[in-house]
Amino acid sequence: MPPRTRMSVRTGRTRAATVAAVLALGTSLLASAPHAGAAEPDPVPVVDYCQGQCDDILPPGENGNATLVEILGNKAFGTHPAHSDDQLDRYDGLVAGHTGLTDQKLNDFFNDASFGVAKDQVESVTSPRDDVTITRDKVSGVPHIKGTTRYGTEFGAGFAAGQDRLWLMDLFRHIGRGELTSFAGGALANQGLEQQFWPQAPYTEADLEAQVDSIRTQEGARGEQAMADAQAYVDGINSYREKSKKGRYFPGEYVLTGKIDALTNIGEIQPFKLTDLISIASVVGGQFGGGGGGEVQAALSLLSAQQKYGVEEGTKVWESFRQRNDPEAVLTVHDGTAFPYANKPGKAVGTALPDPGSVTTEPLIHDRTGSAGTDAKAPVKAPATLKKAQGIYDDGVIPEGSLPGSGSGAQKRGMSNALLVSGKSTASGNPIAVFGPQTGYFAPQLMMLQELQGPGISARGVSFAGVGMYIQMGRGQDYAWSATSAGQDITDTYAVDLCEPDGSTPTKDSTHYLYRGACTAMEKLERTNSWKPTVADSTAKGSYRMQVWRTGYGIVTHRATVGGKPVAYTTLRTTYRHEADSIIGFQMLNDPSYVTDAASFQRAASNIDYAFNWFYADSRTAAYYNSGMNPVRATGVDPALPVRAEKAYEWQGYDPAANTAAYTPFAEHPHSSGQDYYVSWNNKQAEGYASAGFGLSAVHRADLLDDRVSKLVEEGGVTRASLTRAMADAALTDLRGEQLLPELLKVIRSQPVTDPDLDAVVQQLDSWRAAGAQRKESSPGSHTYTYADAVRIMDAWWPKLIEAEFKPGLGDDLYGALTANLATDESPAASHGPSGAHSGSAFQYGWWGFADKDLRQVLGQPVKGPLARRYCGNGDLSSCRAALLSTLKQAAAVPAAEVYPADDTCKAGEQWCTDSIIHRALGGIAQKAIHWQNRPTYQQVVEFPAHR
C-alpha cells in the first residue's frame, strides 16, 4: 500500500485505488473478515530469530486489575495481587546495577522477551474460545496469546486486556469522551483532566462512527481487516467483562465508585464498542503523537519583542529564541542529509498577529453548580469494610500533573528515548538497540505487555490498553521496533473573520464566521457532566457544561481583533477526525509477511499518521523513519504563527468535511538506514526539519545520549550491556551539571573567588561535575545522594541564575512572554518545571540552550546561531560573573526544606524522596517509591543474531 504521507489528497477514490497494491500481501488479508471460529489456513510456524537476546521491562507489573478484596488488602496490609509489582525491583535495580552490567546479567533487570513460554514456566492457560489460548508465564504473568484463527487471536487479545486493564480502559474511554467526572467522580483533578483532553478531540457519537466507517471503507483490504480485528478485540473485552461481573471477580473500583453493589452485585459495567477505541486512540495519539500548535502564545511573545525593540530588531530577537533550525542542535540523522519542512518563508504572507491586548481565551466551562471548580468534599458514610479505601480518588483518578503534559501550566510533552548502533561498531557485527517509550509512571501502566501469535500476526511488546489489537512497540520474529514522540508541526492556528448572518457588525462574541466568502454558523459541541460523592471520591455533588465551537478551520481556542476587526483563533491538526487511522501502520508492523527488512519497516511506519520517530533493528540493519500527516502548506505561509483563514492560505487540497489535505511524500520525511548510530530523546530529527516549538537548541537532553553513544561507537565493540550502561548513566545525570556547569564555572573563575564560603560552594559544584553530575544514592537504599548538597544548590540556583541572566535585558514583559513559551527549568524535583511531581521524565524543557549560547557569547567563544543580543551582565564578563555569584550565594543559603517542599509522600527537605518516581495509582493498588531515573517506562534491549 502506498504510504499515507504521499503528496495527495486523501479521498475514498484515492484509497480505493490502492487496493491493487495489497494483492501481494497474501490472500488471507484480502478475504472477507473471518466469522468466529471459521477455518483458516495453518499459520507459518513461528521461529524466534532473537535466540534469547531480546529483553524488555514494564514496571510495576503486568496485572493491573484488583478485586475489592485485593484493594482492601493493599490498603490495610500493603499486600499486592500477583504480578502487580514483580517488575518494579528489577527496573529500580538498574540504578545501582548498571555499572557492573554484562550481557549475562541483563535478565537481572529485564524480562526474557523470547517468544512463547517454556513448559516448566507455564503458570496458567486460559481458552476463552476454542480457537485461542492465553498462556501466562510464572516470572511476570505476561499473556502469550496464540490463535488458530485471526478472529480468535484478536478475541484473545481483548480478553487478556480485560483481565489486565479493564478498569483502566474504562477510565480512558471516558476521558476521551469528556465524561470522566460523571464516571469516576468530580475531584478537581478529574475536572481539569477532562477539560484538557476533550477540547482537543471533541466529537459527537456520529463523528466517532464516521471514523470507524472511514477506516473500514476507505483503507482497502487492510482497513476492512483492521475493523474486523478491532471488533474481535472488543468482543473479547466484553466477554471478560460479562464473565468477571457474573463471577464477582471484576475490578473493585467499580464498587468504590458506586457502579456495582458489593453485596447484591446489582449494577453494570457498560459494554465496550468500536467507537470507544476511537475515543481512547484520541487520548493516546493526541498526548504522545501530536505536534505544533501554540501559535497564539508564540504571536504574543513576538509582539512583546517587537514592542520592546521595534518590529525589525524585535523579530530578530524573537527568532533567535524561537530557534527553528539551530545549527548546534543534536540531530537524529547526523550524516548531513537535510529534510526541509515547516521553515520560515523568505517573505511571509497571510500572517494574522493579534492587536496588542486583544486576545482572550475561549471559555470552556458553563453553568457550574455545587462543587464544580472547587475541591469541596462531602464524604459519604462508608461501610466499615470499605473504610480503608475511602477517598482513594479524592485527588482524582489521575492526580493533576501526573499524566505527561497535563496539569496547570503544562506544555505539550514529547517522551521516550532510543539508542541504536549499527553492526559495524558492535562486537557481534549485528545492530543493537536499547529503546522504549517514556509514558509516565502509573499503577497499572497505560500500556500492557503481550505476545500475539496468529494468522498474519507475530509479535511481542506493548500496546496501550484499550487499543491493543496489535503490538505498537516491540519485536517480531527477526526485527524489533520502537518510537519516540517527534512533535513536528502537524497543527496550525487560523484566524477566522467573524460575521453576523444579518449583515450587522460582528463582535468578538459572534458565533458565525466567514468561510470562503459565506457567513457560516459555528457548530456548538457540548458535554454536560454531573457527579456526586462516592466511597472513592468524596467530592461534593456538582455539575457543569463544557462547550466548544467547531469551524471548518478547527476548534475555537481564542478570540481577538486583527487590524481592529474581530476574529476567532482556531486550532486545526491533521489527525483530527483520523484518530485511529494509524491502525493500518500498526497492522503492517505486526505482519511478518509485510515487514521483512528496513525498507518495508519504513513503509509500514509511514502509514502511521501521528508524529513519531520510529526506530528499527534486525540482524543486518538499524533504521529510522519519522511518521506524521505533515500538511503541504500554501507557499509563503509561516507555520510558527497564526494564519488568516482564507482559501489562499489553507493547506493545499484542504477539505474540511473529512479534514483531509495534501501531505508531504515519503521521501520528504526524515529517514535513514545504516547510519553509524542513532539517538533520540525528542530532539531535532534532521537538518532543515524545523522545530515546531521552542527549546531544540544547543543543549538538549539528547546530548546526554549522543555524547555517550558516539564515544562507544568510536571505541567499537559495543555490546547490549555497554549500550544499556550508556542509557542508564544518562538516566541519572543532571543535564545542567554536565552541560552547563562547565561554562558557569568558567565565567565565575574568570577572576579569583575571594569569599572563602562562596569559593567552597564553587568547589562543591565542581567536584559534583567532575564525578559525573549525577543524582544518585551514595549506596543502594541510603536514600541520600552522594553529592546531596551540590544537587540542592543547583536546584536552588538554576531558576535564580536564569532570571538574573536574562530578565534585566529582556524586561519583565518579554521575559514573561518567553517563559510562557518555554519553562526555564525541568529538574526531577517536584518543585521545578511543568512535569509534575515524581514523574521521572526530566530536562526536556528548559532554558539550557539559551544559557549555553549566551554564556559562550559573553566568554567570547564561537557560537553558531547565536542569540541576537548578549544578556548576562549586558554582555560584560565581569558584570555577568557578579550576577552569577550573587545568585549562587543566595541559592547556597536556601535550606533543603524550601528547595524540596513537603507533599503527600515526602517530608520537607527530603531530596531523594522529592525526586523519586511514584507509580500513580489509577486504581486501588498503590506502589512504593523508587529511585529517580530519566528512562523509558517500557524498554527493550535487542540484538538479533539471525534473519529469515
Can you offer a commentary on this structure?
This protein has 25 helices and 30 strands. The longest helix has about 35 residues, at about 790-820. Strand 13 (about 455-465) and strand 14 form a beta hairpin. The two termini are about 25 Å apart. The strands form five sheets. A ten-stranded mixed beta sheet has the order 3-4-5-12-13-14-15-23-24-26, covered by helices on one side. With about 950 residues, it is an alpha+beta fold. About 60% of the residues are buried. Helix 6 (about 150-175) crosses helix 12 (about 275-290).
Indicate the topology.
Blueprint: H1 12-16, H2 19-22, H3 27-30, E1 54-57, H4 68-77, H5 88-97, E2 111-112, E3 122-129, E4 132-137, E5 143-147, H6 150-176, H7 180-184, H8 188-197, H9 205-218, H10 220-247, H11 253-256, H12 274-288, H13 295-309, H14 311-322, E6 338-341, E7 360-361, E8 365-370, E9 417-421, E10 432-436, E11 442-443, E12 447-454, E13 457-464, E14 473-475, E15 479-485, E16 491-499, E17 512-515, E18 518-521, E19 523-531, E20 542-551, E21 554-562, E22 565-573, H15 583-590, H16 598-605, E23 612-618, E24 622-627, E25 643-644, E26 671-673, E27 677-680, E28 687-689, H17 702-715, H18 720-731, H19 735-748, H20 756-770, H21 788-821, H22 848-858, H23 877-892, H24 896-899, H25 911-915, E29 920-921, E30 939-942
Parallel strand pairs: 5-12, 6-28, 11-29, 16-25
Antiparallel strand pairs: 1-2, 1-30, 3-4, 4-5, 7-21, 8-20, 9-10, 9-27, 10-30, 12-13, 13-14, 14-15, 15-23, 16-17, 16-22, 17-18, 19-20, 20-21, 21-22, 23-24, 24-26
